Amino acid sequence: MFLELFSTCGSILQNNKDKFTNANANANSNINGELSDLGCCGTIMIIILIVICTLPAVVIAVKCNPRSPVIMGIVAFFFDRIYLFQHVVRKYLMREKNYCKNISCK
């Protein structure tokens, strides 16, 4: 999700930049101001999506792996969908004993 997010946001920003430069080919002085606004909006969008999509996977990884929370947190940060999938399979479908006792579903 995290890596897909960068490619998606990058293509959106590139398309907006191309539309802006084509529409205002003669107004080169305004390009830098508009691109900085797009950069700010893109940055805010990336931060919001990271918080909504990636942060829950990282929290689960840190709480469920007390032996190596940092490594599993990094893995969950970069591969959040895969990590959440394996978490659901192990905890709820296979019902492994002693897997992730820290997080309960009451």
Quickly count the domains: 1
Order of helices and strands: HHHH
Q: Averaged pLDDT, please? A: 76
Strand element count: 0
Structural class by helix and strand composition? mainly alpha
Unreliable spans are none
* Percent helix range: over 70%
Describe this structure in words.
The chain is mainly α. It has one domain (2-93). The chain has helices at residues 2-23, 28-64, 69-78, 80-93. Helix 3 (69-78) crosses helix 4 (80-93). The longest helix is centred in the middle third of the chain and has 37 residues, at 28-64. The protein is elongated. It starts with a helix and ends in a 13-residue tail after the last helix. The model has no long low-confidence stretch (mean pLDDT 76).
Question: Keywords for this structure?
Answer:
elongated; 4 helices; single chain
Layout of helices and strands:
Layout: H1 2-23, H2 28-64, H3 69-78, H4 80-93
